[in-house]
Amino acid sequence: MWPGILLLILVVGGALVGITLSALHTNDTTTTRQEAYAQRKADSEKISGGASGSGSDLVSDDGAVGNPKSYPDMGCELPDYQSKNGRIVAVSANGTEVPVDIKGINWFGMETGTAIPLGLWDNAENGTTAYQIASFLADNKFNAVRLPLCVNWILTNKAPESSLINTAENRAISVKNYMSLLKSIVKVLAYRKIGVLLSMHTLTSTDSGSLWYSDDISEDDFLDAIDTLTKNLCSEKYWNIMGIDVKNEPSKATWGDGSSKDFHAGAKKIANRMLDGCSNWMGFVEGINADHSVTIDGTKYDYYDWYGGGLQDAADYPLTFATDNKVVYAPHYYTPAVYPQAYFYDGGTQGSNGAIADYVEIDDSTLKSRIKATMADMFGFLADDNSSALLLGEFGGLYSKDKHPELTTQRCTDLSMEVIVESGWAGGFVWSLNPESAYQFNPADTYGTFTEGILEDDWLTANSDFLKGMTALNDLANLRSMPCFEVEESSSGSESSSSS
């Protein structure tokens, strides 16, 4: 009897062990298949047509790849961002200094009525996610994003148009209100060590603001919006914010005349208010607009400043803030797609709408000489004393869609980047990531509406020609990811080391 019972126990026990091992194997196989599926799904959602290699994908506790519920704490200090010796420099608490040149891009939408950065609808036909945009930018060596904002939305903390964001595929993106959305976008970019420049872009969703105040938004309102940004965002959680572009394209402003429209005084007041709330940030300042003339190779050219581009009067009235090493000059410079300036061509007749009939395109050498000379006249001289950093807050235009027979608009973008690199400036922010970016001339004799961005209309595919053109900025001497000065606790306090 007993031997039979022992045999039965052995048989049953062996069977149970076999079942358990089989179940474990099945579970492991299922888990492996689920992980493989999740990775294939994530890979299929990547923006195609660019480089790859931004690092491993973020995997959530539920197995989702590239769609985190939240982003991990990076453990980075908020650096003291400084502008000195012609460079942007991130300075750690222990004094470590890392210069960073900017290969930047504008990503617009939060300044509009939708109150969201566009492209995040991610449906069966088009749209993408914030995670994929950040990965794409890092893969292609973009290390900073300029985010246009709306002053009124900052003040009212407007709820964004949540129907235009696929929250199931953007789980870490908050659509509760304007500030929570902004915070979550900054965190996505921080995960890929991409810096952020906050642009005070529009006063309201229907008024871009030719000054930093209007009948609807007072100067005090504007300064309150600055306070809101510093109170909410000046912390280690948002360590990648470099500062604020204090007002986009103040086209009706003056410079240094002491009037109520004096942007020299206005920019200083706004930046000092920012520094009161966040001494770690920098103030980025654009130019104004006026008629000018410049003589190039013996020929006089009349021109009107690009919106945000006129800093001629800064020669006599340079900027200083209450804190040293915080001024960044950030003018705009564009191409014939925005307006066909006479200096881009030889000959032709300019009509009332700005189009140039019978325009004559010029060779690369001549075109570059004129771009360099006009940049020097507008703002380039500010880099001569090698003090405050100079970069382009906006530049670009149509690229692969340029209809000039000799691609003058495309060449203007290419040559602008050559001047940036060769002159040793601190970089620039191309306009823009968005395929909705609109321009008025294509080619110089044709007025209309023409769109193009770094991404194609589906937001899923890179504009390969434009993206390839942007590799010219890869030659910036100090191009690198935003440095993360890791906070390390020690018995004597906190120390930091740079990880970039």
Tally of individual domains: 1
**Percentage of residues in strands:** 15-25%
Largest sheet: 10 strands, parallel
Ranges with pLDDT <50 over ≥5 residues? 490-496
CATH architecture: Alpha-Beta Barrel
Q: Helix fraction?
A: 25-40%
- Going by CATH, the homologous superfamily would be Glycosidases
Elements, N to C (H/E): HEEEEHEHHEHEHEEEEEEEHEEHEEEHEE
For this structure, the CATH topology is TIM Barrel
Radius of gyration (CA) equals 26 Å
Q: What is the end-to-end distance? A: 74 Å
**Total strand count, please?**
21
Output the CATH class name.
Alpha Beta
Quaternary form: single chain
How many alpha or pi helices? 9
- State the strand order across the main sheet: 12-16-17-4-5-6-7-8-11-15
Shape: globular
Average the pLDDT over all residues and give the rounded result.
93
Structural class: alpha/beta
